[in-house]
Amino acid sequence: MHGLHRVAVIASAVTVGVLGLAAASPSAGTPRAGPSPAVDGSVPIVPVSYGPPPFFLVDDVRSAELRTRLAKCAEQKATPTAWSIGHRGAPLMFPEHTKESYIAAARMGAGIIECDVTFTKDKQLVCRHAQCDLHTSTNILLTPLAAKCTTPFSPATNSTPATALCCASDVTLAEFRTLTGKMDGADETATNVEAYTAGTPGSRTDLYSSGGATGTLLTHAESITLIRSLGARFTPELKPPAVDMPFRGLTKEGYAQALIDEYKAARVPPEEVWPQSFDLDDVRYWLSAEPRFGRQAIYLDGRYDEPTFNHTRPASWAPSMDELFAAGVRTLGSPLWMLLREDGDAIRPSVYAAAAKAAGIDIIAWTLERSGSPPAGWYFQTLPRLVESDGDVMVVLDALAQQVQVRGVFTDWPATVTYYANCMGL
Question: Is the pLDDT of residue 89 over 50?
Answer without folding.
Answer: yes
